[in-house]
Design brief:
With about 400 residues, the chain is mainly alpha-helical. The chain has three domains: about 45 residues; about 80 residues, DNA polymerase, domain 1; about 210 residues, hpI Integrase, Chain A, CATH 1.10.443. It contains 14 helices and eight strands. Strands 1-2-3 form a three-stranded antiparallel sheet. It has a three-stranded antiparallel sheet with strand order 4-5-8, with no helix packed on it. It has a two-stranded antiparallel sheet with strand order 6-7. A hairpin with a 5-residue loop joins strand 2 and strand 3. Helix 2 crosses helix 5 and helix 7 packs antiparallel against helix 9.
Length: about 400
Amino acid sequence: MAAKKRTDNRGRLLRNGEMQRKEDNRYLYRYTDLSGKKRTVYALTLVELREREKQIERDFQDGIDNIKSNMTLNQLFKVYMETKSDLRESTRRNYFVTWSNAIENTVLGNMKISKIKQLHIRAFYSELAKNGYSANTIKLYHNLIHPALELAVDSDIIRKNPAKDCKKGIGGAKKERTALTIAQQEALLDFVKNSSRYKAYYPMLVLALSTALRVGELTGLRWADVDFKQGIIHIRQQLTYRNLGDGSRFRVQPLKTDAGQRDIPMTESARKSLIRQRELSLILGKNGKTQEIDGITDFVFTNSLGNPYATNSINLIIDNMVKAYNKQEERKAGNEHREPLLLPHISAHILRHTACTRLAEAGLEPKVLQYIMGHTNISVTLDVYTHLDFSQIQGKMESVQKNMRIG
C-alpha cells in the first residue's frame, strides 16, 4: 500500500524535511548541516520556507557554513584576533580598545555577518564622517573590519566581503599635515630660548626639530640610548600613557614597526641640545625624585619632579608656548606698526613633520629620509615633498639642471 502523501492545511504537497505545525500553522524544514548536526528553520508561509531551503541548498553546494554566518561582526572580530598570533601584545590591546570604542556597541557591530551588505558598511563610515571623524581614523576602522570579514570569506562562512571597495571614497575631515615655515620655526625657537617660563623646554624642542622623532620616541628616549662618543642616538622604544584594559598608566612599549628601530646620526644642534638637557637633568637629579617606568629611570626628558611626559602634556606645553608667543608678537607688532608673524596651532606631530620637511629641503635623499623617519613605506616619506615651498623646489631644479644632458 502506497504511503500517504503529506500535505499542508491547504492541500499542498510537502517535500522531504518539510512540516507544518498544527498548533500555530508555522512551517519548518529540518536538515543536517555540514558538520553533521540536525538543524531546523522556520517560516510563516510555505513560499518563505522554500526560499530559505533554496538558500540552504545553495550554501551546501558552495560549501558555505550557514550556521557560523549567524555570528555577529563583534563575534567574528574576536575570532579574527585569535588568528593574529604575530601581533605585539600592545598592538593587540590597541585593536581591541579601538573596536570597543567605535564599533562594538553599534548596529553594525551587532549585525549577523550573513546580513551585512556593502550599504551597511558605507552608511556606518558616512555616519562617522558626519560626526567629525577624520578620513584616516575611518580608514583605521576599515582596516579592522575588512580583514575580519575576509577571514569569513576564506573560511566559507560568507560568499563575499561586504567591506570590499568601501575604503574608496571614504569621507571625513582630512587633517592636513602642514609644516612650519622657516620663519615660523625660527620665531618659535627664539621665543622659547629667551622665555623665562619656557626655556627649560628649549633642548627638547631643538632635539625634536633635529631628529624628527615621534613624540613617544622623544619622551621614551633614555640616556643609555645617547652615544656622544659615536655621535648616535639609538631609537629602541617608545613611551605611552593609555588604558589597555588594566588602567591608565605610563608604559614602555616596542616601537610601532620594525623600521622604527634605527640609529640616527647626531647633528651638532642635536648634540648641543642633549648636553644642555644633561645639565638640567643633573640639577633635577639632586631631588632624588624619579619615576620608574617598566624598570627604566634614565629618561632624557622629565619634569621638575623627575617624571616623564605624556603625549598630551607635550602638546599642551607647545600649545601654551604658541599662545604666549602670539600674544607677545601681537603687542610688539602693534608697537612697531607692522603685521604680526603669528604661529598656527602646533602639535608634537607637526614638529616631526616640520623636521622631515627641513631635512627634505636640505637635500636628504628619500631613502635616507625614510630611514631617519622610521617609515616602513617610502610613499609616506615622499608625501612630505608635497609640502616643500615652490622656491625650494625651484632651487633644487636649478641646482641639478647643469648635470642633466637632455637635447
